[in-house]
Specification:
Layout: E1 8-13, H1 17-29, E2 32-37, H2 40-50, E3 54-57, E4 60-61, E5 64-65, H3 66-74, E6 81-85, H4 90-99, E7 103-106, H5 111-124, E8 133-136, E9 139-142, E10 147-150, E11 153-154, H6 159-170, E12 176-177, H7 178-185, H8 194-208, E13 218-221, E14 225-228
Parallel strand pairs: 1-2, 1-3, 3-6, 6-7
Antiparallel strand pairs: 4-5, 8-9, 9-10, 10-11, 12-14, 13-14
Helix pairs in contact: 2-3, 6-8
Length: 230
C-alpha cells in the first residue's frame, strides 16, 4: 500500500465541495487517508503520482466525463475504482463499468454502504490461495475439486453454473455487467445473450438461496448485472 493508514489511501475525485468534505471525513474516521481532486486533469495527475490504493470518481466533472479518466487510468493500473455519481440511469452505470470501473454507487448514498463497497474492492486485490475455498451463507465452494456444498450436502451444478458462480465469487462483491459475465463465462461471441444468463442465475438461486425470489447473496443490479454478497 502507498500509505500507513490502516484502510489505505483513497483518491477522491469529486467537484462538489460539501460532498467531498463529507466523504473525506467519513473515510478518515474509518481509517483511510484521503487526497482530493476536483477535475479529470487533476485526477489523472494525482492517480499517477500519488499511487492510491482506491479511487472514488464522480462522472460529472467540470472539465470532462469521469469515464474518460477511468478509461485512461485503467490503461496502466489495476487500482480499484468506485464511481460515486448522481447519474442513476442504467446506461450510465453500464458505460462506467465497461470503461473499467469496478463498482457504482448512486447519490444519495449511505456511508455504511460506501465503506462496505470499498472493503469489497480491497478484498479483490488481496492474495488468495491458488485453489481457494469460498463460503457465503451456508454454501461452501471448492474451486480445486469443483465441489459445492450447502449445509454439508453436495449441490450439483452444471459446468456453466459453476463457472458463473466462481466468476461472481472472484469479483469479491463488486457488480459485474451482463456483458462482462457473458464474455467471461460463455465467451466473446455470447455477449448479447442475456436471456441465457438470466436462466442460469435463476437456477443458481434455486439451488443456493433459501428464498430464490428474495435472494440474500446472488443479487441483481437492475438493468446492469449481478453481484454476489457474502
Amino acid at each position: 500500500m502507498s500509505t500507513d493508514a490502516p484502510g489505505g489511501h483513497v483518491l477522491l475525485i469529486e467537484d462538489d465541495a460539501p460532498i467531498r468534505r463529507f466523504v473525506r471525513l467519513a473515510l478518515e474516521y474509518a481509517g483511510y487517508s484521503v487526497s482530493e481532486a476536483e477535475s479529470v486533469k487533476r485526477g489523472q495527475i494525482d492517480a499517477a503520482t500519488r499511487r492510491p490504493d482506491l479511487l472514488i470518481v464522480d462522472l460529472g466533472l467540470p472539465d470532462g466525463d469521469g469515464k474518460t479518466l477511468i478509461t485512461q487510468v485503467r490503461g496502466w493500473s489495476p487500482v480499484p475504482i468506485l464511481v460515486l455519481s448522481a447519474r442513476d440511469q442504467e446506461r450510465e452505470k453500464v458505460a462506467a463499468l465497461d470503461a473499467g470501473a469496478d463498482d457504482y454507487l448512486t447519490k444519495p448514498f449511505g456511508i455504511d454502504e460506501l465503506l462496505t463497497r470499498l472493503r469489497a474492492l480491497q478484498r479483490r486485490l488481496q492474495p488468495q490461495a491458488a485453489e481457494p475455498v469460498w463460503r457465503f451463507g451456508d454454501v461452501e465452494v471448492d474451486a480445486r475439486t469443483h465441489d459445492v456444498r450447502r449445509r454439508g450436502e453436495t449441490v450439483h451444478l452444471t459446468p456453466i453454473e459453476f463457472r458463473l458462480l466462481v466468476t461472481l465469487l472472484r469479483a469479491q462483491g463488486a457488480v459485474l455487467t451482463y456483458r462482462q459475465l457473458l464474455t467471461q463465462v460463455w465467451g466473446p461471441g455470447h455477449a448479447e445473450r442475456t436471456h441465457h444468463l438470466r436462466v442460469h442465475m435463476a437456477n443458481l438461486r434455486r439451488k443456493l438461496e433459501d428464498d430464490p425470489a428474495q435472494p440474500r447473496h446472488l443479487l441483481t443490479e437492475l438493468q446492469v448485472g449481478y453481484r454476489l454478497v457474502v
